[in-house]
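Interim report to the steering committee. The following record documents the input for Disease resistance R13L4/SHOC-2-like LRR domain-containing protein (283 residues).
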Amino acid sequence: MLQTLNLARNQLEGGLPSGVFTNMSALVEINLRSNNLSGELPSDICSNAPKLKRLLLSENKIVGKIPKSICKCREMEDLRISSNKLTGNIPTEIGNLTKLTYLSMFSNHLEGEIPSSVFNISSLEFVYLGDNILTRSVPIFNSLTRLQILYLDSNLIGGIPKEIGYLTSLQHLKLNNNKLTGYIPKQIGNLTMLRTLYIDSNNLTGYIPNQIGDLSSLQGLDLSSNKLAGNISSSIFNVSSLEFIYLGDNNLSGSLPANLDNLLNLQVLSVKSNNIIGAFYNL
């Protein structure tokens, strides 16, 4: 019986009618990404394909709400419905997908709060929810110790919780282009596997925490376009893996740290539009 249906990257049009996967009960993967599919998601996908592990529908023109019934696919490991025209809330029942490792819903028109149930799925490794209309603050994610990528850009308001320090497997974090306020928590220094950190284009205040210097794997740091103040911590310039640093458009002051020459891999350093002082020949 058919287990994998892969029609990705074609010119398929029209909707997915109810019953379209009838008599395909052995399906493990449905891949229809990068087509011109429209209409709403059928509510009977899981009842007709109970063994489904991968549902890949990104880069289409699918509209409407995410049906709660999609959360009955208890074997689901990979759910990608990004870059469509989906609206409404993320169903709280998504927490029932306890085997989910990859969740991608970015670039839709989803709104409301991110259900706390999402962040109780301890198997999650990749979460892409950016570029929607999601509101409220960054969720608390104590259970996501396997999470490697978290993209929540272009959505949220509120602050960055100190519990972010529990995400000790995180490698890439994007919280940019939100309306985040408050301080960058010092617990960010617990994310020692982090490679890229984007918190630019927010309303964050206070100092850059010294603990960023503990991110020994960091390659890219972008804290630009906030309201950060104080001196630039010299601890940042002890992270020898850094390739780019963007700190421009803040209220930073003082001189650049003397240990700038530690960054042998650095390709871009931007501290424009601050209050940096000192002689140019000391750089």
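The chain has one helix and 23 strands. The committee is asked to note this result when reviewing the revised timeline.
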